[in-house]
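Support request from a user on the community tier.

User writes: "When I paste my structure tokens into the form, the page sometimes reloads and wipes my input. The last time it worked, I copied everything first. Here is what I submitted, just in case something in the input itself triggers the reload:"
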């Protein structure tokens, strides 16, 4: 367990979807690097396990629920003297329209259920919006935000069109918020990886020859994005061996 301190030189991270996959790999990587992590996830068992392994402070939080964010905001404010101000925000939690054990046909538009749609939009879109709404007033100049979008946020993804829609939404939000947050000295980026071997991947997509990156293949990239001087950009990461690169919005003339 890390020692709470008021030192300004130790980063305070907030990571959503921290209990599994990319979020868990990030929590391991940044705690090993000496940073403090507030790990948010809906899954209490995996979250507490992660906390025991890494020293992160786990908060059970349904990021699609504004009241859960309000409760977390109260925790941040009440403990500001010992925690300090959050400096690195990784809005990462996400789900696909169907559970991983569902047949691929359940991911298609015509198979949509209202419950599945609301859940996915709640996590992938509302979770980012409510997270930003809660955290932005509590950040200072120098803070950095990375949203885990997806390649499906910048290219078509016919496997799960509604998932692609949700990820395009957050890419649009990040690109559009960039200039406004820059005036406060805060950066924001969308990280858009291809397939990564996590619990999110539909079982039927795990074909014999399918190639996925591992979560630890992208942690350095996400940590690096927190120090990027540009802002409001979408970064693709298509394979373990190719570095991330900016996919610019049409009309984006910044260097
Ligand atoms: P994962 O399923 O391993 O982890 C997602 C985590 O989010 C889980 O711990 C889950 O409990 C948590 N979560 C789900 N609903 C939540 C809620 N309402 N509130 C709080 N936490 C919640 O999946 P993975 O792959 O690590 O996903 C992380 C992000 O990466 C997601 O946004 C996903 O869309 C994105 N992504 C994943 C790719 C992949 O191929 N695995 C590729 C591109 C993007």
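"...and here is what came back when it finally went through:"
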């Amino acid at each position: 367990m890390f020692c709470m301190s008021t030192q300004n030189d130790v980063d305070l991270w907030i990571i959503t979807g921290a209990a599994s996959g990319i979020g868990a790999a990030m929590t391991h990587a940044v705690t090993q690097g000496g940073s403090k992590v507030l790990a948010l996830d809906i899954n209490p068992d995996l979250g507490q396990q992660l906390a025991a392994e890494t020293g992160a402070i786990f908060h059970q939080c349904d990021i699609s629920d504004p009241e859960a964010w309000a409760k977390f905001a109260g925790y941040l404010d009440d403990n500001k003297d010992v925690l300090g101000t959050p400096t690195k925000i990784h809005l990462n939690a996400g789900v696909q329209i169907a559970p991983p054990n569902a047949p691929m046909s359940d991911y298609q538009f015509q198979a949509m259920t209202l419950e599945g749609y609301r859940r996915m939009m709640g996590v992938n879109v509302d979770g980012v919006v409510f997270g930003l709404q809660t955290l932005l007033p509590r950040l200072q100049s120098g803070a950095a935000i990375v949203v885990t979008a997806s390649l499906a946020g910048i290219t078509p993804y016919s496997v799960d069109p509604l998932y692609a829609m949700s990820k395009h939404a957050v890419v649009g939000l990040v690109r559009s918020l960039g200039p406004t947050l820059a005036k406060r000295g805060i950066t924001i980026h969308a990280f858009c990886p291809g397939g990564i071997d996590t619990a999110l991947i539909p079982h039927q997509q795990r074909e014999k020859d399918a190639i996925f990156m591992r979560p630890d293949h992208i942690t350095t990239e996400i940590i690096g994005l927190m120090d990027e001087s540009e802002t409001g950009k979408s970064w693709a990461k298509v394979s373990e061996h190719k570095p991330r690169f900016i996919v610019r919005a049409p009309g984006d003339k910044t260097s």
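Agent notes: The reload is a front-end session timeout and is unrelated to the input. The first strand starts at residue 12 and ends at 16. Confidence is low (pLDDT under 50) at residues 1-7. Escalated to web team.
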